[in-house]
Amino acid sequence: MKKLSARRRHPLAAVVVLLLALAATGGLYAAFAPADKAQADETAQSLAIEEGKKLYAVGCASCHGTGGQGTSDGPSLVGVGSAAVDFQVGTGRMPAQQPGAQVPRKKNIYSQAQIDQLAAYVASLGAGPIAPTEKQYSPEGADIARGGDLFRTNCAQCHNFTGEGGALTKGKYAPSLEGVSEKHLYEAMQTGPQNMPSFPDTTMPEKEKKDIIAYIKSVNGDETPTPGGFALGGLGPVSEGLFGWIFGLGALIAVAIWVAAHTAKAKKS
Known about the structure:
Blueprint: H1 2-8, H2 13-32, H3 37-59, H4 61-64, H5 81-90, H6 112-125, H7 134-137, H8 144-154, H9 156-159, E1 166-167, E2 173-174, H10 182-191, H11 206-219, H12 237-268
Antiparallel strand pairs: 1-2
Helix pairs in contact: 3-6, 5-6, 5-10, 8-11, 10-11
């Protein structure tokens, strides 16, 4: 009994008991705790990439190559990032119906879940712009006036000052921005689709992109006022001048002819 009591009072006894307790706690946690969140996210990402690879093989590989390396019918997708995929597929531009000077927007054929899977696979081919979160592209709290200045400086040359779009060279055109979602507007600025230059955060910070989105939504909204009357598509002085020449001048000519005809009748009588 004296020997046992002496062992219990040994200076290292408390340390040994503590180590045993920690080991037991760690073992129980490893046995019964849920899987680590990072590991679960990694597994989900791997599954998304695998599903995206299958979708890619069916709808994209014929033009962009089996590994996204590109072919004579389509550019390489290595390094375009998930933002480019989300924009191109989400707006229905991809898969393209036929080759041409420019691929038009159309109804998309994939669900958002499938688009996310395609984006995950293409992103795995090489680092590129990442699809934005709602916080990044939401125009809430943005400066519309500042967005208008930025839009007129960087975008109006092609898209018109109200985002109605316009013609470019060789059959190309700047599409109308009416009805385009905030997310796709942000992604277009990120990635520079087709003829459009890209505006990464190093060139145009996130705040400025949000300001531009807020401006576009303000001028293309259903309740946007038109102080000058009929907006004529918002295309600017060209359409307004053409309207004036055709209808205004035409009305004056018609009135002049009517006056002349009635004057001649009056003289005869």
